[in-house]
Amino acid sequence: MKLAVFDFDSTLMDGETIDFLAKPLGLESKVAKITEKAMAGELDFFDALQERVALLRGLDVNIVDEICQNLPLMEGAFDTISGLKAKGYRVICFSGGFRNATSPASKILGIDADFSNILHQKDGILTGLVGGDMMWGSSKGDMLTRLQSLLNISPDETMVVGDGANDLSMFAHASIRVAFCAKEVLKAEASHIIDKKDLREILKIVD
Question: I want to staple 159 with a disulfide (CB 3.0 to 4.6 A). Which of 43, 98, 106, 176 is the partner?
Answer without folding.
Answer: 176
